[in-house]
C-alpha cells in the first residue's frame, strides 16, 4: 500500500515522510528490494532530505521511566 501511495503522489504535490530507518533498510518494510528501490527513487526525485541525528523524545522518556522502575524494584 505504501508503494502505491507513493507512486500515486509522485510529482503531484508535497509529501513529508519521517522514518527512523535509513533507506538502506527499507527493504525490510517492503519485503522485496525492488519496490523499496522504486519507492526511494520516487521519494528522492526533486527532494530535500533532512537527516537529524538526535535522540527521539519518546525514546528518551521511555528510557528514563525504565531506569526509574528498575531503581524502584531494586529498592524493594
Description:
This protein is mostly helical and 76 residues long. Helices cover 57% and strands 0% of the residues. The protein contains four helices and no strands. It has helices at residues 2-9, 27-30, 33-44, 57-75. The longest helix is centred in the last third of the chain and has 19 residues, at 57-75. The model has no long low-confidence stretch (mean pLDDT 80).
- Give the fraction of residues assigned to helices: 55-70%
Class from helix and strand fractions: mainly alpha
**Unreliable residue stretches:** none
Biggest β-sheet: count, sense, barrel? Answer: none
Helix/strand order: HHHH
Strand content: under 5%
Distance between the ends: 49 Å
Q: What is the number of beta strands? A: 0
Number of helices: 4
Keywords:
76 residues, mainly alpha, 57% helix, 0% strand
Task: Write a concise synopsis of the structure shown.
The chain contains 4 helices and no strands. With 76 residues, the chain is an all-alpha fold.
Amino acid at each position: 500500500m505504501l508503494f502505491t501511495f507513493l507512486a500515486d503522489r509522485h510529482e503531484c504535490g508535497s509529501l513529508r515522510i519521517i522514518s527512523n530507518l535509513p533507506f538502506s533498510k527499507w527493504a525490510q518494510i517492503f519485503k522485496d528490494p525492488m519496490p523499496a528501490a522504486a519507492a526511494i527513487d520516487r521519494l528522492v526525485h526533486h527532494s530535500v532530505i533532512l537527516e537529524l541525528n538526535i535522540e527521539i523524545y519518546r525514546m528518551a522518556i521511555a528510557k528514563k521511566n525504565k531506569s526509574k522502575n528498575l531503581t524502584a524494584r531494586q529498592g524493594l
